[in-house]
TrEMBL record:
GO molecular function annotation: metal ion binding; nicotinamidase activity
Keyword Secreted appears in the UniProt entry: no
GO biological process: pyridine nucleotide biosynthetic process
EC number annotated for this UniProt entry: 3.5.1.19
Domain of life from the UniProt record: Bacteria
Name of protein: nicotinamidase
Annotated Pfam families: Isochorismatase
Record family assignment: Belongs to the isochorismatase family.
Domain spans labelled Isochorismatase-like: 16-217
Record keyword Coiled coil present: no
Pathway named in the protein's UniProt entry: Cofactor biosynthesis; nicotinate biosynthesis; nicotinate from nicotinamide: step 1/1
PANTHER family: LD05707P (PTHR11080:SF2), PYRAZINAMIDASE/NICOTINAMIDASE (PTHR11080)
Amino acid sequence: MDMSKIPSPDARAVTGVIVVDLQGDFTTLKQGSLAVDGTDSTYVKTVEQVTLRLRAKGFTLFATQDWHPRDHVSFFTSHPGKHPFETVEIDGLSQTLWPPHCVADSENAGILMDPSFFSMVVKKGTCKDYDSYSGFQDQGGTSTELERLLRAGKITRLIVYGLATDYCVKATALDAAKRGFEVFVVKDLCRGVSVDTTRAALEEMAQHGINIITMADL
Ligand code: VGL
Ligand code: ZN
């Protein structure tokens, strides 16, 4: 590995951290409706500890928060006769149908860290008709405030991790790279929905110039 690429606080680039969807519904810790394997209390504690260490280094912290209306298009319950994890075509886009999760204002939509640690918590997927795996914009093309906030903070480099590797981490990291940020995904601070799509996601991110690193590199 090229050691010069590892984020360090004294490099000239301003570094931000995006903690993706660290929410009860994605964890076994909270018996979430869309719990991802390997998301017990040890995982959540590790993410919290590393995040606080990065904050102590002077990096600005951001979080994304999946935040859906109860009749959201991505819920299988919004499609009579359909089952969880089935795929449907909606307006020419393939949509995986999920169990209802991260319903706005529900307990398990909550972030599993003190929100006050974050400079901003960016809600996504708030529009009923569009899903949003990326923290930058939804499938309908509507942007969140994330890019503007990063630019306002002169941030050029992003450390990204959280849930799930193969969906929201991947989409957020790819969108960041597309927007010209230098991106580091910390793979052992991520957990994926399935083994195959997680492996493919790490390959796809690497192919797009994203640096795949581990906690030990931080
Ligand atoms: C996610 C599926 C549905 C994620 C969000 O955070 O990766 N996955 N909504
Ligand atoms: Zn969702």
